[in-house]
Amino acid sequence: MWSTKEPGAGGDGILSHPTGPRSDRIHAQVLAATQELLDEGGLPAATVDAIAQRSGVSKATIYKHWPSRTAVAAKAFGHMMAEELPLPDTGNSRDDLTEQVRRVSTFYASPRGEVFAQLLAACVDDPAAAPYFRVYFLAGRREAVTTLWQRAVDRGDASPDTDVDDVIDILFGPLIFRRLTGHYDLTDEHAEKLARTALDGLMRSTV
Amino acid sequence: MWSTKEPGAGGDGILSHPTGPRSDRIHAQVLAATQELLDEGGLPAATVDAIAQRSGVSKATIYKHWPSRTAVAAKAFGHMMAEELPLPDTGNSRDDLTEQVRRVSTFYASPRGEVFAQLLAACVDDPAAAPYFRVYFLAGRREAVTTLWQRAVDRGDASPDTDVDDVIDILFGPLIFRRLTGHYDLTDEHAEKLARTALDGLMRSTV
Amino acid sequence: MWSTKEPGAGGDGILSHPTGPRSDRIHAQVLAATQELLDEGGLPAATVDAIAQRSGVSKATIYKHWPSRTAVAAKAFGHMMAEELPLPDTGNSRDDLTEQVRRVSTFYASPRGEVFAQLLAACVDDPAAAPYFRVYFLAGRREAVTTLWQRAVDRGDASPDTDVDDVIDILFGPLIFRRLTGHYDLTDEHAEKLARTALDGLMRSTV
Amino acid sequence: MWSTKEPGAGGDGILSHPTGPRSDRIHAQVLAATQELLDEGGLPAATVDAIAQRSGVSKATIYKHWPSRTAVAAKAFGHMMAEELPLPDTGNSRDDLTEQVRRVSTFYASPRGEVFAQLLAACVDDPAAAPYFRVYFLAGRREAVTTLWQRAVDRGDASPDTDVDDVIDILFGPLIFRRLTGHYDLTDEHAEKLARTALDGLMRSTV
DNA sequence: TGATAAGCGAGACGGTACGTCTCGTCTTCCG
DNA sequence: CGGAAGACGAGACGTACCGTCTCGCTTATCA
């Protein structure tokens, strides 16, 4: 499985290249500029030229640190989303998970949710960027749900035999499907219904 | 909700422009050429220039009939997938649905599944193409599952109160999620496990 | 030499095709529409589609009557310029010719002079249109100067041996040269100087 | 007046953009390719795509160096004509000028004269290209005649008060007029007659 | 401290597809 | 059956973004 821990600069294996003090400055500037651009105009606005111009880092240097513009954007997006979405904690495992589904649904429907969808889409055509999206964004999201699920297991509300990866896919896959195809709007009501049905299958022991 | 019936020539509302006998020839030629290109090199190969050249239809004409190359590809893909995936019929509703999930999982992992993912991704950045993908491809897939689910309801294996759209999202959303992020391979075993868990929540009365 | 007489409908040899009352209506509508377009936006505005739309005559029909859009424009332009530029008549041949040069210079510098230049240029790349420009526009201009020159000959101010075609070329060729290359503005002073020098060579007997 | 000196790379004001060693290579390749195309098929053959393909320089780069294909062609044409047409030197000013007129007339009637006419015509609809044609082609031609005229002045055959620009226009404007409208062929006899008449006005003191 | 090499900014460049435009032909159907 | 309407093929246009490259300047490390 892909690593879920936040890699430090220079310690993320295949995902980074140069090292040292200059490198740190470059990373910071590029990511900051990219975050601005993503917020202003989504992925389409985060062209390499735009990032280079705004960050003051040259295109050549960017390509020495990242394999593609999508990779840059994925990492920048992961960092800007890191502090968002604090975990719910109602004392009830099922309620916590339901609330999390609702929050993610709301996020998908927001402007940054649009960026999320663009990034997910871009990774399809850019295999080199996919690991960046997984490590710097998805890992954090999965970790959050893993925490909630572990609580449920600890409380005896869920079976320790159920693979948390399946839990994640079943709870959030449907939301992503809807977000991408656009065949339905993402509403709180819908998110709750989805969570209820999914959790019925996942946490049947709690019924 | 978006229509699920296959629109006839000239009868698909916003999705087509010119009409008449000449139009029919153009549609046939363009779609045939696009299908070939999709099979040969996926969405990236289906450039408007390539489609124009192979079909003998000029670019300008293509743009009169479709809003973008993604829309052309979506319709072509829908047509080429129309006859695939016959419905399973084991006599057992739950087995049928499980088998369908397995088949779709296999499809997603195939070359044409790659095209599916590319199309889904392309629609994120091309809102005009999204309805084409929904009407000409997704609708057919949803219809198939709707049939299976209806059987289950008729047999008393499922509640008529459950919205089939939710069923579809829960059964296939997770597969799509995995297909897009690539964080796991799509295996038969995994598909079965997913189906089992999801159906536990959806068809609890059958337990 | 090319004919200088205004050809009647159906009587201008290679320059026209259909005949009859319907033809007359079509000619009138097309030329009127084209004249409007030329005045509004010059030659670039007189596209075949625009002419067809404004005149109510179909493109196919236009191409039955003229070999190209430039030919249409040339004829339309000739007709709209037919009444302009009355001949000067000061009683002095040399003054008349000088005045004519000045007037033509002014015309070249006007908006319609721009159209003249565009038409002249278009005929370079459209041999089929050239005769239309010569017959329907240039012939009329040359005829005017021929009249002036004949007066001079009759008065004994010019030699009957001098070919009037050479006179025309020498008097107006320089203006056209300047108009096309744009290396100088066309001013009255310049036109007069040009006429003076040229007429010194052409009408030496008058010195 | 516009400059008549051949501008060096990077020193031609509005007429060029990038500079440096890479730029030199691009200019050389593009102009060489364009010259070939002009000789093979005239201006219509010198499309930007064709120039790009043959020169190995991308379209985008061409558009960074020149405002339009006409500008490229004008410069290429100027360079390929630079060595042509050595000055006549018979010892007699009037004969030299007459000979020059004859040579230019012959040139206009040649295949490259056709290109000249196409270029002149194209500049009418492409104001951005006009300065290129003036600087890189016309300037050289005017310079040649200026030399001949200066000789005449030095020998006392012509008045120093006569503006050489007028001389040029009167000697060559008529040829251009005929070349463009095509109302007469360009023959040696005609050129001589034209030169004789024009020079009668210009060099009357020599009679 | 000064040399040497690597990192870097600036931006030119080739490549490739885009979506648009106008021409002149061809088809369809109406009066 | 002539003509209006307009679909159509052809092919050039000029633009956008990608990712690579070349060029000097700057910075960091080692002689």
From TrEMBL, chains A, B, C, D:
Record domain HTH tetR-type: where: 24-84
Keywords in alphabetical order: DNA-binding, Transcription, Transcription regulation
PROSITE patterns given in the database record: HTH_TETR_2 (PS50977)
Name of the protein this chain belongs to: TetR/AcrR family transcriptional regulator
Residue numbers spanned by region Disordered: 1-22
Source species of the chain: Actinoallomurus vinaceus
DNA-binding region coordinates: 47-66
A Pfam family reported for this protein in Swiss-Prot or TrEMBL: TetR_C_11
PANTHER family per record: HTH-TYPE TRANSCRIPTIONAL REGULATOR RUTR (PTHR30055), TETR-FAMILY TRANSCRIPTIONAL REGULATOR (PTHR30055:SF148)
InterPro entries, per the entry: Homeodomain-like_sf, HTH-type_TetR-like_transc_reg, HTH_TetR, Tet_transcr_reg_TetR-rel_C_sf, TetR_C
Domain of life assignment: Bacteria
